[in-house]
Amino acid sequence: MSTANLIKMANQIAQYFANEPDQQQAVLSVRNHLQMFWTPGMRMELLAWQTEHQGADLHPLVQTAVSEAGWKA
């Protein structure tokens, strides 16, 4: 899957949870969704993108969720 598609999907997930009043819960929900429904390869590709591009094009909830997830590249 292309990185552009992963970014688009991750941002859509974040948009879904963006209206959550508790931002920590929103971040947790994004992280849990990525952990449960994305393959390790998809998560690693997203992590690599965030690391290389300082989170460019990623919704802030995704940036925080990926940063706090503790995934290793």
How is the secondary structure organized here?
Elements: H1 3-17, H2 23-37, H3 40-53, H4 60-69
Helix pairs in contact: 1-2, 2-4
Morphology call = globular
Q: What is the ordering of alpha helices and beta strands?
A: HHHH
Low-confidence stretches: none
Tell me roughly what share of residues is in helical segments. Answer: over 70%
Average predicted confidence as pLDDT: 94
Q: How many E strands?
A: 0
Cα end-to-end separation: 17 Å
* Oligomer designation: single chain
Features of the shown structure:
single chain; 73 residues; mainly alpha; 4 helices; 74% helix; 0% strand; globular
Characterise the protein shown here.
With about 70 residues, the protein is mainly alpha-helical. It has one domain. The chain is about 75% helix and about 0% strand. The protein has 4 helices and no strands.
TL;DR of this structure?
This protein has one domain (about 5-70). It is about 75% helix and about 0% strand.
